[in-house]
Amino acid sequence: GENVEQHPSTLSVQEGDSAVIKCTYSDSASNYFPWYKQELGKRPQLIIDIRSNVGEKKDQRIAVTLNKTAKHFSLHITETQPEDSAVYFCAASISGYSTLTFGKGTMLLVSP
Amino acid sequence: DSGVTQTPKHLITATGQRVTLRCSPRSGDLSVYWYQQSLDQGLQFLIQYYNGEERAKGNILERFSAQQFPDLHSELNLSSLELGDSALYFCASSVEGVFGYTFGSGTRLTVV
Questions:
Q1: CA of B44 vs chain A CAs: smallest distance (Å)
Q2: A82: distance to nearest CA of chain B, Å?
């Protein structure tokens, strides 16, 4: 089955800096890669996703890049703010009919 | 409110007991997924149901079982509970063929 590795497990940045979280996946058939943000004690929420037919997608301060050849994708957050502090999960799936396999998460801490 | 309703929010029970967690998906969503989130294990997929039938199975213990009813709500039954079963249990739902999940707020299970 699919295996998703996520790094780093913890990331500390100063407010205003950029943050990058990286994930690799094992199944070359995977074609959907979402990112979820989970604040303490709350549910994971989808913040951005990308499909295999595009290499990059941007939404305001967040962007995701995908390298299908290398089987890795990354989340980029620019101009970080304290409210960006949360656990971020990457995931992968083969289609809309299959389950999501999640990475183990990255705890992002943004210091004022 | 995500539209996915999970009850109860908190549950404290003793080892060896049995509990039932309930999930009502978003209106129109036919797929329900159950995930277990422990402190250092991220989001572990347990089981998926689609329109009343089991669609996929993950790392679900034999002591655990689930079902989806004709009204599409789902129940996760956990029996012979052990201390290690203490975790957050999330339910998510999706429209089949459409990428991405919506998570409920979770049930925090504490086994003492």
A1: 8
A2: 23
